Amino acid sequence: MVSKSDQAESDHVTLTPVSYADAHAVGETFRDGVPVLMNLTSMETMDAKRTIDFTAGLVFGLRGTIERVATRAFLLSPAQAAVANDQDSERSQNGLLPDRPGAHQAAAGLGRRGP
């Protein structure tokens, strides 16, 4: 794990895993109810894909949300966390985001099943 922000100064933790073996730290932090900004820019492509699969399952199982915030960077928000940004507010006001649990999962393409 490359970095972990000091939670006392922030309302989330930023984690930068360097391999799939570091995914457990992301999972433990998220399971504790802390929003996680996960930066995958230091990972190999295959490990990054495995980590996204792992965290998508984690988020689904704990009824949270996952949102891509930049290339290879994702915000994982626990169900009880109130994490919003200006874009979400703007999209909701314009009717672009449905007002229902799991809306970010569908918007991120995680709710789709393909062939």
What does this protein structure show overall?
- The protein has 115 residues and is of the alpha+beta class.
- It has a single domain (7-107), classed as SepF-like protein (Translation Initiation Factor IF3), CATH 3.30.110.
- The protein is 34% helix and 16% strand.
- The chain has a 4-stranded mixed β-sheet.
- Helix 1 (23-31) links the parallel strand 1 (13-15) and strand 2.
- The model is unreliable at 89-101 and 103-115 (pLDDT under 50).
List the helices and strands and how they pair.
Elements (H helix, E strand, L loop, with lengths): L12 E3 L7 H9 L4 E4 L5 H17 L3 E6 L2 E5 L8 H8 L9 H5 L8
Helix pairs in contact: 1-2
Summarize this, please?
The chain is α+β, with helices and mostly antiparallel strands and 115 residues long. 34% of the residues lie in helices and 16% in strands.
